[in-house]
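Box 3.1 A note on notation
Throughout this textbook, protein chains are presented in two layers. The first layer is the amino acid sequence; the second is a token string describing backbone geometry. Keep the layers aligned when reading.
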Amino acid sequence: MWLHKQAGGMSQAEEQSELTTYFNNFTQWPLVFNDQRESSGALRTFGIEQPNVNLRKRFILNTYTVNAPAVDYTLEIRDNGGFPIFSGSANGSNTFTLNRLLENTSDHILIFKLISQSSFTPTSQSIVIQQERWDTYLNQWTSQGSPITYTCTSATGGSATATVNVPEQMPEMKVYDFIINLFKMHLLTSSITTELNGDETLEVLPLVDYYSTGTEHDITKYIDVKETQVERLIPYKEIKFSYKGRKTALITAYDEAYPTAKFGDLNWNAGTDDMDGERYSVGLGFEHAYYERLISSGGALSNVQYGLFVNQDLEPVVGLPLIHCIVERNPSGHLKWNNPSISPTTLTAYNAPTNIDSNGKSIHWGAQFDEWDGSEETRSLYYRFYSDNLQSLFTFRGVIDL
């Protein structure tokens, strides 16, 4: 899926430096007198009591001090690599008031990050931590000794690099809708297998593979053909396979030129004129794109293929989430990476967008030409996942004489 949340260029990509230190690393944060960390470097808390033993223990993160030059930065503190339990910004040296509580029964592995638009080196960092235990007689938390100060001796600055926040670039789509569209796309089935120990395994298979896992049984002797009643099982004779998203200029132009055979779509029918029934639709809530291979100045095809997300007025657009394939191509000197700080670098490989993967399998519904070389590719979604089942349902078997 293409990371494309809004029309135009990518947002949230910016130059920043990041300095990360790990509290469980005794090289960065050396041992101190009366150290409260475990041998693993974690701060271990207990939220329950054992019989005749008071184990309830917690920690309070009091303050965090950064001695740094006069640059803007953000301090993030994470517990076990999860979401920040503290975030604050400052310029230059500063003492942050944390007042963050570590409790329950857990091993807390703290991670400290300094994030800035500028590359800088703090001279030191330190954190003050207070341990508390539960007093069963007073029925309250009480301080266990004095607060302890830990100082980071490894204060190497981070270098400025371009970073992309991947979740911020995800297109707007519910996870449920994404999964449902994948199931439609590949005609998937799901089943749950329960093991003897109670563990459950969810198995997802294309329908044709799911059928192959079954066991054949000969039921001929149980069938009475003296009397029969036949009812229609399937009220459809046509199926329209399509992509709902078709906003870009090239695919719009193609669809206007071939309105009865839109790019990537398929109109399937049972193949018999005397069969009645309605049309059934399988529409994917994804965008479909038409990619183009550039022509060199000499008129020959280059090794550069691209996709352009603009409308027919050449204005940037944002459509439905785009599903596509990529194939690594050698641009043969036609592409260069333009880095302002160094001379442009010639690329020897790049990921070319395409609807047909390196194995010749396409995400078109029906047979379609390959935008790269013009050849027809028949290994479509319909051919690989739907054809066997539909042909077995609608193939004429002749008349049964009873």
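The radius of gyration is 32 Å. The first helix runs from residue 166 to 169.
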